[in-house]
From TrEMBL, chains A, B:
Keywords: Isoprene biosynthesis. Residues 241-385 form the Thiolase C-terminal domain. InterPro entries: Thiolase (IPR002155), Thiolase-like (IPR016039), Thiolase_C_2 (IPR055140), Thiolase_N (IPR020616). This is Thiolase domain-containing protein. Residues 6-224 form the Thiolase N-terminal domain.
Length: 389, 389
C-alpha cells in the first residue's frame, strides 16, 4: 500500500468575519497551506481535492467543492464535496488519504470551510441549532446542546463525573487557546468562571459549549515519491479510521460514549500498529465539554468511566502524559463545522514540526486527530507520525 | 492495484412518489441490489458506503448518508455522503472503487437518492430551478435550461446542429424508456411531437428537457477476493475517471462541449487501456438533449461537431454501433439527482448480465457510464467490463 504524507497545512483565523466569503476563507487557508510546504509547490500537480462543508443556502447550492478549488486555481484537480456534519473535513482527510493509497492521486488536497455567523445569507447556524436526528430529536425540539446534555447527565450518574470535571475541560482548552493566534475565543477562563456560567442545557452551561465560527482549513497530502520532493519533515498518515453508528443518540447502545469513536480509533491504531498509550498528543472533538471526557475513554487514553479523575490528574494538560487540544480545541479555537477536522490536522502538523509557537510542546512524535459528526453518527480518527515509513 | 467488481445493482422506479421517503426509496433500491447478488450476501461484511444526494431541507440536515445506511442495517459500515450536484452518485461509485483499490474495503456500497417532487418538505427542485453558478448565473436569473440552451445555440451556430438532431435524442430515448419498467416517462414520443413541443428556453423545448424525479439507486462493489464469493458474472470497474472544471459555463473555454467529460473519459480509457471505439454501449448524461450530443463528441464516439450527423446515422440506436441510453436515459427514465449516476451503473450491470428484459441488446461486453454535475463543474466516467481481469 502507498503511504500518504501530510506536507502542508494551514487554517484561517476562526471567528465572525462578515467581510469574508466561503471562497475568500478557503483561499486564505489554501495559500497559507501552500506557503507551509518546504519544497516548490506546483498547484497543477494536484490530482484530487476533497472539500468538507455542511452548509448550503445563500451561496453555491451544489458543487461548492469545485467552486472553491477553481477559485484557488486548482483547475486540473478532480474535486468532491464530502459531508458528514461536523466530521466533514475529517472525512475529506481520509478520502484524500485513500485516493493516494489507491494510486488515484500523487498530490491531494483535503480541506473544509463554513460560514456560520452570516444569518442572512446562510442557514447553517439555524440548522445546527435545530439539527441532530430529524424525526425523534429535532422535531421533538431537542438541540445539539440537549443531546450532549443527556450524555453528560448519564456520565455523571453512572461514573460520578462532576461539574468540576466538565469545567476543567473549558479551563484547560481556553488556557491553550489563549496561545493560539487563530482562536475564536482566545482568552483564558478560570475554573470558577467556567463552573458558574449561565445554564444552556442542564447540566451544560455556556462554558461547556463551543462557539459557532466562520473559518476554513486546508491540508496538502502527497504520496511518498511526491512527498520526497515537497518536504524535509515528513509526517505520515499512519492510520486513517472512519466509522458510523446510529444518527440518533436514543438509538445507540450507550449514552456515555460514542461507539463510532471506538470503532474508528481501532481501525486507526491497527493501521498504525500502535496502542493508545503510544499516542503523544491529541486534538479531540470537544464540541461540548462532555465530548472531550468521553473521547478520553473511547480513544483508550483512560479506562471507561475514569475521564473525570483523568483530567483532574493533569494528564491532558500541556505538561501531562498526553496533552489534549493544545490548539484550544473547538471550545476556544472555535468550530466552523466543515473546517474543524482539517483544523485539527493543522495543529498536529505544527506540533510535529515544532512550529506551534507559544503553545509548542517539545518531543512530540505521534499525534491523533478525532472528529465527530453530529452526536456520533460519523467519526474519523487519524494518527500522524513524524518521519518516513 | 486491487480491482473493484460490481456484484449487485438496482434502482427504484423513478417518478413522483408522495407516499415514499428518502429512506424508503433507498431501502427499496438496496434490498433489490442485495437480491441481484448471485451469492450469499452478508450486510455485516459491508465496510464502506458512499451515498450521493444534493438535497437537504425538510429531512435529515446533516449525516443523511449514515441516516439511510443505518435504516437498511449497515451498522458496521463507515458511511460518507458525497455531493457533486447531479454527479453525486457517479462520485459515490468512484469513491467506493477507490476505497476497494486502497484496501480500506472488501465490500462497499455506492448509492444515491433524491426526493424532488415534495415541494413542501424539500427544497431540492426549487434549488435545481435556480441553481448553477451562483454569482453570475443564478443571481442573474439563468436556469439550468437556460445554461444548456446557450450550449445548444452555440452548437447549432458552430456545427450546423439542427432542431431535428436535438429531437432525435428525445425520440430515441423515449423509445428505449418505453421498454424500461422503472422509467418515469416510459412512453414513446414521435420525432414530430418532440420537434413541436412548447419552448422552455430557446432553442430547447419541453422534450429537450428531462423530468425531475424521486428515486434511489444502489450498487454493490467488491474486491476480487470478495467478488469470487459473490458473483458468477464478474463485472470489473475497468476505469474510473473524475474531473472538475469551472462551475460557471461562462468561465469555461468552450460553449459547445464539457471539458471535464473529456478529462474524466481520458482517465477512464487510460485505466481500462482502451479507445472510445472499444466501448460497446453507454449511458450518458442527457439532462438536456444537447448534453447527449455533446457527450458523443466529448467521449470520443464521434468527431467534434459531428454529433448531429452521428445520431442521424442511427449509430446510437439499440441496433447501432454504440447504443446510447438503452435505459431511456435521464430524458425518459428520469433524473432523481442523487440517484442518477448509480442508476446508470444499474443499466450497464443489467445489460452486461443479459438481464435487461425487453431492451436487452445481445453481445455487449463493455459499457460506459457518464454522469455530469451542474453544467460540467464535475464529471465522472466509468468503464465496466464483463469477466475477471
Amino acid at each position: 500500500m502507498r503511504d500518504a504524507y501530510l506536507v502542508g497545512a494551514a487554517q484561517t483565523d476562526y471567528g465572525a468575519f462578515p467581510h469574508e466569503s466561503y471562497r475568500s476563507l478557503f483561499a486564505t487557508a489554501f495559500e497559507d497551506a501552500v506557503a507551509s510546504v518546504d519544497g516548490e509547490f506546483d498547484r497543477a500537480a494536484v490530482d484530487e481535492a476533497y472539500v468538507g462543508t455542511l452548509g448550503v443556502g445563500g451561496r453555491q447550492l451544489g458543487l461548492s467543492g469545485p467552486a472553491v478549488t477553481e477559485y484557488v486555481g486548482l483547475d486540473g484537480a478532480s474535486c468532491t464535496r464530502v459531508e458528514n456534519a461536523c466530521a466533514a473535513s475529517g472525512t475529506a482527510l481520509r478520502q484524500a488519504t485513500l485516493a493516494i493509497r489507491a494510486g488515484a492521486a500523487d498530490v491531494a488536497i483535503a480541506g473544509g470551510f463554513e460560514v456560520m455567523t452570516d444569518m442572512s445569507g446562510d442557514q447553517t447556524r439555524y440548522w445546527l441549532g435545530v439539527s441532530g436526528e430529524t424525526e425523534w430529536e429535532r422535531m421533538a425540539g431537542t438541540t445539539f446542546a440537549g443531546v450532549y446534555a443527556q450524555m453528560a447527565d448519564a456520565h455523571m450518574a453512572d461514573h460520578g463525573t462532576t461539574r468540576e470535571h466538565l469545567s476543567r475541560v473549558a479551563a484547560k482548552n481556553h488556557a491553550n487557546g489563549a496561545n493560539n493566534p487563530h482562536a475564536h475565543l482566545g482568552f483564558e477562563c478560570s475554573l470558577d468562571d467556567a463552573m458558574n456560567a449561565p445554564s444552556v442545557a442542564e447540566p451544560l452551561n455556556l462554558y461547556d459549549c463551543c462557539p459557532t465560527s466562520d473559518g476554513a482549513s486546508v491540508a496538502i497530502l502527497a504520496s511518498r515519491e511526491a512527498a520526497e520532493e515537497l518536504t524535509d519533515t515528513p509526517i505520515r498518515v499512519a492510520g486513517a479510521g472512519q466509522a458510523s453508528s446510529r444518527v440518533g443518540l436514543f438509538q445507540r447502545p450507550t449514552l456515555t460514549g460514542i461507539p463510532a469513536t471506538t470503532d474508528a480509533a481501532e481501525q486507526a491504531y491497527d493501521e498504525a500498529g500502535i496502542d493508545p498509550a503510544d499516542v503523544d498528543f491529541a486534538e479531540v472533538h470537544d464540541c461540548f465539554s462532555i465530548a472531550e471526557l468521553m473521547a478520553y475513554e473511547d480513544l483508550g487514553f483512560c479506562e471507561k468511566g475514569e475521564a473525570g479523575p483523568f483530567i483532574e490528574s493533569g494528564a491532558t494538560e500541556p505538561d501531562g502524559d498526553i496533552p489534549v487540544n493544545l490548539s484550544g480545541g473547538l471550545k476556544s479555537k472555535g468550530h466552523p463545522i466543515g473546517a474543524t477536522g482539517g483544523g485539527q490536522a493543522v495543529e498536529v502538523f505544527k506540533q510535529l514540526r515544532g512550529e506551534a509557537g507559544d503553545r509548542q510542546v517539545a518531543g512530540l512524535g505521534r499525534g491523533l486527530a478525532h472528529n465527530v459528526g453530529g452526536s456520533g453518527g460519523a467519526v474519523t480518527v487519524h494518527v500522524f507520525e513524524e518521519g518516513w515509513a
